[in-house]
From TrEMBL:
This is Transposase. Residues 40-66 are annotated as: Disordered. Residues 40-49 have a biased composition (Basic residues). It comes from the Bacteria. InterPro entries: Transposase_6_like.
Length: 66
C-alpha cells in the first residue's frame, strides 16, 4: 500500500537529501557472482522440449580392417 501511494519514494528522497546535506553519501557498489547470475540457458542448461536426435551410426558393409 505504501509503495502504491508513494510513501516509500518520499522516505527515500528525504533520507537521500538529508545524507547529501551532511556529506554522508557513499556510492560504493559491490557485485559478485552470488548476486548476479547468468540465466540458466546462458550456463549451458538443457532446454525444455524435444532434443535433436543424435546422428545414427551406419555399420560398414565389409569386415573391420585389422
Amino acid at each position: 500500500m505504501w509503495a502504491v501511494d508513494g510513501t516509500w519514494e518520499r522516505v527515500f528522497t528525504t533520507l537521500m537529501a538529508q545524507a547529501d546535506a551532511e556529506d554522508d553519501l557513499n556510492w560504493a557498489v559491490s557485485v559478485d557472482s552470488t548476486i548476479v547470475r547468468a540465466h540458466q540457458r546462458a550456463a549451458g542448461a538443457r532446454k525444455k522440449g524435444p532434443q535433436p536426435a543424435s546422428p545414427t551410426t551406419t555399420p560398414s558393409d565389409g569386415p573391420a580392417a585389422g
